[in-house]
Queue: 2 jobs
Job 1
Amino acid sequence: MEGDAEFRTSGLDAVVTEFETCGAPSPPPRTPLPPSPAHATSPPLPRGSHSRRLADFRALRHLRAGRYEDYLDEHITPTDLFYLEDVGLARQLVELGYRGSGEILKRHEFEVRKQAIEEARLARMRKKPKAMASAGKVFSRAPLLQALAQREEAVRSGKLTTIVFIRDKNEKGQEVSGYIDFAHRLKTENLEPVFEQRKRLLPKTSDLSFYNWETQTSTSNPTPNFQVIADNEAGLLFKNKRDRKIINVDPQSDPGDNSVRTNLETHEYTQVVIYDHVTRRKL
């Protein structure tokens, strides 16, 4: 064991000394690297380039693969293996900076960049436009669905916030009413069945405001877009969290700055009122 350790140490010193003084020695017959435990070693890149661009390309390829050892293997030559006879020592040589083209990333730097790439990938996925729940649907006899479909894209993008007041009977025959944050419903519920007219859009206890006229159940909840103001002399109010404007739902009052009230005539529900609010603050 001691003789073997002495051989490996002297071999490591010999490679370091030769690369620092005279450059690489003449390579012996090529000895292929063993395949990675997770997958086969990536195809070799063109040799002879010591540019940072090549080093960054190698790093990026293995950052995506997720194995630091594969990244180090890109910088190991048959000459290194001839002297060291050990892939582990050859990788250590590269990591210490004695071999390789361009800057060699340390393991912790590799992991940091790997995490940054993953975060960037997830950010790109989040920015991808989501499919419209109303896309491809026909609403010739459904005025509410047609009105919501016209607003969906602007609501999803944040250019518009819409509150929908609905009063009608639920599946138990009980009269219910409430104010629905359309954007919040789009994010928390699959509304395709609604736009396909297989399911009705009705207020729920988790919406901005809900009231069951038979059981006298009353609830109110803030959403990411609106704060509920229920104890005001003017009655029920909603405060937009983005521009802090107040939406007044009293039919006898002005709805507020940048807000429009639309009374929708429809046979679908007993009563429907839509409040559109355009936010002026930059998203």
Note: The beta strands are 160-169, 175-181, 209-212, 217-220, 226-229, 237-240, 246-248, 259-264, 271-278.
Job 2
Amino acid sequence: MPPLSPPPTRGRGRGIIQRNYLKLIGAKMTKADIVEKIAEKCGITKRESIDMVESVFSILKSTLEEGEDIKISGFGKFEVKKKHARKGRNPQTGEAITIDARSVLTFKPSTILKSAVNGG
């Protein structure tokens, strides 16, 4: 099998293509990887690192559950957006339905993070 070429950086659907490419080559970072890197970098035990990571994620989760935004300087902004109820259509039957109101979590990377990811 020939080696995989990197996905396009421009054009329609590039996000999906890039995610699938990353899955194919096995590029991902898990919570366990984060714990390990923090333990190594800070010179603390893995148990202390696990507690730290769990605490940070717990704080982030509870803040977002309350509907508050989180802005991390140099990283980006997590924002909870409210979507109103709207009319929709069942694609199988064509029947008109109401889609319930819901909250959607979005992330907007900072310009610093964008440039770092793009090799700037």
Note: Residues 46-65 form the longest helix (20 residues).
